[in-house]
Amino acid sequence: MMSEKSKPIEKGVDFLLRVGLTPKNPDKQELLMRRSMRNVLFVLCSFLCVMVLGPSACSPPQICAEGEDLPANPTSLNAGGSPCKSDCECSNQVFEGYCKKETPDAEEGICVVIQRETCNGVGRIATCIPQLPPLPADAACRTGYRICKPDYLETSMWGNCEPLEAFRKRNNITATESDEKTCGDGVDNDCNGKTDKSDPACKDFCDPGQRRVCFTDKDNKIVDGRFGDAQQQAAAANTGSCSTGFQFCKDGKWDEECVGEKKPAAEVCDGVDNDCDGKIDNGVDDCKCTPGTKEPCYDGPSGTQNVGPCKNGIRTCGGDGLWGACEGAVYPTTQACKGVDDDCDGLVDEGCPCLGEAPRDCGSSLGSCQAGKQRCESNIWSSLCYAYRGPTPEVCDNDDNDCDGQVDEGLRRSCSYGCKTDDGKAIVGVERCEGGSWTGCSAPKPPQEECNGKDDDCDGTIDNMTPKACKHPTCGDGLQFCAKGVWSSCFVPPSGKEVCNNKDDNCDGNIDEGLVRTCKNSCNVEGAEFCLGGQWVGCTAPTPLPFEYCDGKDNDCNGQIDDNVTDIGRSCAIPQGKGVCGTGTITACNGGKPLCTANTATAESCNGLDDDCDGQVDEGTSSCVSVFAGKCGVEGYKDGTLDVAMFSSPAGMAVNPSNSSLYLADPGNKRYRLITRSGVVSTIAGDGTSGYLEGPALMAKFMFPMTILAPDESMTKMYLLDTSNSMIRAYVFKTSTKGAYIESIAGTGKTGSADGLVGGATFTYPGDITKGNISGGILYVADTSNNKIRTVVVGSNVTTLAGQAGGGFLDGTLSTARFNIPSGVSFDFATDTLYVADTANHRVRAIDISKSLVSTLAGDGKCDPATGMDCYKDGSTAIAQFIRPRKVLVHGNVLYVLEEHRIRAINLTTKMVSTIAGDGKKGYKNGPALQAQFGRLSHMVVGQNGDLIVSDAGNHCLLRISLTP
Fold first, then answer.
1. Residue 836 burial (C-beta neighbours within 10 Å; 0-12, 13-18, 19+)
2. Same domain, yes or no, for 294 and 328?
C-alpha cells in the first residue's frame, strides 16, 4: 500500500488523466493510450517526489493488489471512465463502482461509478436496487442490500448495493429464515418477499417483552392465529366458555405456556356451552326446560360474570324443551389499554406499556439532534417523538448534522477556478470541508493575466489588463491599452486644433482627420474638398457638362438655361398610366421640366404587354400564356399585390366558390397562401419552418404542403395534403369565438399502408387528393409511393379502393388493378368516375366507382423517358402518347392532363387528345400557348373567367392560359 506522503502523486496522476485524457466513450486504443500515459506521468511524479521527499515516502499507488477483491479502495477520487482490471479500482470511499468489460473474459474495462449517499445509524441494513452492475433480466431475486458505514468505509456513507446472494456471502448470512439471527437481521434471506418476523418461517421467534394472544388447539398445540388453519381455529377460541390467553416472549422465543386461556370441557346441563361448539347443553340427557321460559345466562370464563363491562344475557327455552343461545351477554375481550377492564378480571389496563405515566425522553441529543418526549396516550406509548429534531444529511457548517458524533466528516465536492481545457472542458479538482468552510481545492491555480488574447486568470474576461504608462514621441506622457492580445499605440488625450499639414496636431492618434473646406468649380458652383497627406484634394463641385438637361440649370456653363436640351425624344414614365400607357416620349422642356406625352392604347394581343392599358396582360386573347402572380424566375417569400408577391415552389390550388378567391399550397415556403379576387396575396397557414404542429393556423408547421381542396358552401374547413408528413390535415376557418386553426384528418405522421380508423391509418408520401362527394365527407387519395388509390371517410376510416403494393400495370377489378406511381386524381361527379394520372405507366386511367372497374382512358404506355421516343402524340385516346402525366383536372366534358412541360386536353365526348400549351422543352417563355415553355408544372385549376391557372414550380410563379377569346 502507498504511504500517506505519496498519495498526492496518485491523486495528481488521476487528475491530469481525468481532465485531459478521458474520452466519454473510450475504445481499446484510447484505454491503452491512457494506461501508458498514466505510467509515464506517475514515473515523472515519482521522480519529483523522490527528489523532494526521499525514496521511502514515494511507494507506488497500488490501491488494489493483483487478484484482490476489496469492496472499496481507500481513495476518494471519481474514477468514472478510467481504465481498470477489477471492481476494486473503481469503488472507493466516495464513489461506488465496478469495472465494466465488453466480455466476461476481457482483461481490461472502464470504470462506471455513482456517488455514495450519507446515512445515519452505523451498521443499519437497508434494501436497494443493484445498479453496478445491473441485475440480469432473468435474476430470480431483484432486491439488494447495503450497510451504513461498513468496515471498508471510513465515514457514514452507504456501502455497496449488492444482490442478495453476494450480500449473504460477504456477510456470512444463511439463505433461510431459520434461527434467531436470521429472523432479526433485517434481511429477506430466502427472497420470498417477507422479512424477519413477518415470514412464517420465523413464527417461533420474537422480540423481548412482546406478548401475543394464544390458545391451545385441538391437537394440543399452542398457536397464535397468524398463519394457515390456525386463523379459523382462533375465531372459535372465544366461543362458549372458552377464551384465549397470552403467550410471552422469553429469550427471543415464545414461552410454551399460554397464560389465562380457558379450554373446552365436557358439556353439562348448566345453560353454558361448556365444550365450545356453539351449542348450549347439547347432548346432555334429561336436560329439558319449559318452552317459552326465559332466564339470565352467562357462559363466559369463570370469575368474569358482572365484572367490569361483562354482564348476563337472556336465554329462552325452545319448543323442543332445550335452552336456546344466550343472547345479549357481554364477555371478556383482549385488553385494549383504553382505561377499561376489557378482560373482566377486576384490573384496568393491566399489562399495558404505560399507565398514565409522565412523558419520557426519546431520540438522541447527539450533535445537532435534540431529544423529544414520548407521551403515554391511552395507556400506550405514542409512536411519535414530540419536539424531536432528528439527523439531517451532513453539510459543511462545523456541526454534527447527522448526529453520528463526527463533525463535517468525509465531506468533499468538486471545485474549479474557472479554467478550461483547449476543447472547452472545465478543469476541476476536489476540495474538503474543514472548520465549516470549504478549503484545499486541488484544481491547478491559474496564472496571472497577460496581453495575449487569452483568459489567463480564468475570470471570464480576456486581456483585462491594467493600462501601462508610455511616452508619445511628440505628445508626451500617455497610456497603452491591451486589446486582442496586442498593446495599443501610446494614447494621449486629444488637445489643440488639427490643421492640414500631415501631422497629428491634436494628439488623438490620427493625422489630418475630419478636415473639410468649401471649394468652387469654373461655373462658381460650390462643393467640398478634403485634406489628404497634408494637401487639399477632391473638390466635389460638379464639372461643367458638355450638354444641357431639362432641369432649369445652366449645365454646360454657357450662360443660358435649358438651351438645346438632350431630353427631347427620350422615353418617360406616366405615373398613373397602366400597361403601355404607363410610358411615353418627352416632346418639350417647359420651365425646367420635361413634357411627357403618353403612348396610345391599342387592341390587346398575345405579346406579354398590357396593350389596352387596363392593368391586365394578354387578357381576352385566345391560347395565350401570361404571368398571373409572382416574379417568374425569382424564388422567395413575400406577400402583397400579384406583381410584388413571391413564391418558392407553388403547387396545389383551389377556387373558393363563394367569392372566387384562390387558395395555393407553397411547399418550398412550408405555407398555404390566399389570392383575393382583387389581386392581393397573403399567408393563411404555416410559420415557414419544417415539421409537424397543429393549432393556430399561422403557428402550424408542415413538411411539404402539396394540395388544397376548395371549401364547401358552409365555409367551415378546407382539406390539405401534407405529403412529407404522409397526412391529410384541415384548415378550419375562424369563427366569432375562435381563430383559424389546423387539425389532423387522417394519418399518423409515419409512412405505411395500413387501413383502418383515420387516427391509425398510414400513407406513404401521397401526391394528390380530391373530393368524392359535394360535402367533402369522402376523399380519394393518390397514395403515390404505395401505388394505391385510397378512400377516406372523414371522421371514420381509411380503405384501399384500388391498386397493390409493388406497382405495375393492369386494368380490371378494383382488387386486381395495378398502378405505377399514381400522382394525380380528379373526380367527375356527373359520371361517378375517378380519373388517375398514372405517372410511371405514362397513361391516364379511369375508375368507374359504380361498376368497381379500372380501365385505361388514354396513352399506350410506350414512352421511353431516357430517349424521348414514343412520348408525345396527339389524336385518339387509343393512339395518344404521354410522358409522365402528373396531374389531371376534369372540367365539363374536358379532362386536362398536366405533364412536366406540356398541358394536354382529352375531350371525354369525342375521345380525342390535343395539346393546349407548351412546346415540351424546359424553360420560361410566355406568349402563344403552343410556343410557351415551362420550368416544372405542378398543379392547375380553372379560374373565375374560364382561364386555366397553372403553378410553374420550376419558375416560382403562377401562369394564366386563356383558353377562349
1. buried
2. yes
